[in-house]
């Protein structure tokens, strides 16, 4: 298998790798914004992120991604 189809963690277990991109040039959802902020995903934080996205658009995530 190729590198992209089966990423492995250092201990040999297969891990799901989620790509992060810089800025808001790609679609993102409220869960992405919560994770970009370094927080655990909870219903309250997802709702807060949803409001921020509606209010600020892509700028909501751009401040957290390099």
Describe what this molecule looks like in 3D.
The protein has 66 residues and is an all-alpha fold. Helix content is 38%, strand content 0%. The longest helix has 14 residues, at 43-56. The chain is globular. The model has no long low-confidence stretch (mean pLDDT 79).
Gross geometry: globular
Our Rg estimate from Cα atoms comes to 14 Å
**Terminal Cα span:** 31 Å
Structural class: mainly alpha
Q: Biggest β-sheet, characterized?
A: none
Helicity, as a percent range: 25-40%
Order of helices and strands: HHH
Q: What is the number of E strands?
A: 0
Total helices: the number is 3
Write a concise keyword list for the protein shown above.
38% helix; 0% strand
Describe, in short, the structure shown.
The chain has 66 residues and is mostly helical. It has helices at 30-36, 43-56, 59-62.
Question: SSE layout and pairings?
Answer:
Layout: H1 30-36, H2 43-56, H3 59-62
